[in-house]
Design a protein that fits this description.
Elements lengths: L1 E6 L3 H12 L4 E7 L2 H11 L3 E4 L8 H9 L8 E6 L5 H9 L3 E4 L4 H12 L4 E2 L4 H12 L9 H4 L2 H11 L4 H8 L3 H15 L4 H10 L13
Parallel strand pairs: 1-2, 1-3, 3-4, 4-5, 5-6
Helix pairs in contact: 2-3, 3-4, 8-11, 9-10
């Protein structure tokens, strides 16, 4: 059973998300918060598997909450799925930096939100495929990030892992990658399990951020990212 905490300052959104997720046989909504401070308190009390956080909330923002829940020393450490109205927003970039494992727009299809919760719960991470390149290229340009790894990707990853990282950066799912490379999905999962620790990350989304930060993925100019 996937235990989920929902935090959003809009009552209708909270109720809608709670009803959507609670209807799934493998998901239990263990808490609902209307602001960041309450979300953090409930997360510490209830230790959910996934926290679905709005970014803009009274008191402590979703970014603040994500930063605390995703920190290596956090107890409990909770996977964070960010749900937002804004597709290109400094708050979104802050959430990525804070360690969020997933990012979706609130107007995503209900089945996509449910799928995202399941993906994030098992550490796979997720991001809206139509926004991956826009958001992450904008993220890199606005933050003016320098490469964070002291070694070249060729020294860190096998050729196949490198291929998979590039396909991840295009927003592909495990099934998409398997079809593209003509391998079994289980093979893709095995490569991912070995690749993530090499990059020092814990989710697919963080691996994609790593790829953009280190210019493994060719980053277009800010104007072409729109």
């Amino acid at each position: 059973m996937i235990r989920v905490l929902i935090a959003d300052d809009q009552p209708l959104v909270r109720a809608g998300l709670a009803a959507l997720l609670a209807a799934e046989p493998d998901i239990e909504v263990v808490g609902v918060a209307q602001h960041g401070t309450q979300a953090l308190a409930l997360a510490r009390e209830l230790a959910p598997d996934v926290a679905c956080l709005d970014i803009r909330m009274p008191g402590r923002s979703g970014i603040d909450v994500a930063r605390e829940l995703c920190a290596p020393q956090a107890d409990p450490q909770v996977q964070v799925l960010v749900l937002t109205t804004f597709d290109l927003d400094d708050y979104v970039f802050g959430a990525l930096e804070a360690g969020a494992s997933g990012f979706l727009l609130k107007d995503s299809e209900p089945e996509d939100i449910v799928h995202a919760v399941r993906q994030v719960a098992v550490g796979r991470g997720t991001i809206d495929q139509t926004l991956t390149r826009r958001i992450l290229s904008e993220f890199v340009h606005r933050r003016r990030l320098q490469p964070v790894a002291g070694r070249r990707v060729e020294e860190l990853l096998t050729a196949r892992e490198h291929e998979i990282l590039l396909l991840l950066a295009e927003g592909m799912s495990n099934d998409d990658i398997a079809r593209n490379l003509v391998v079994e999905v289980s093979t893709v999962k095995s490569h991912l399990a070995r690749m993530l620790p090499k990059l020092g990350v814990t989710s697919r989304l963080q691996a994609v951020v790593w790829a953009y930060q280190n210019r493994v993925v060719a980053v277009p100019g800010p104007d072409s990212a729109r």
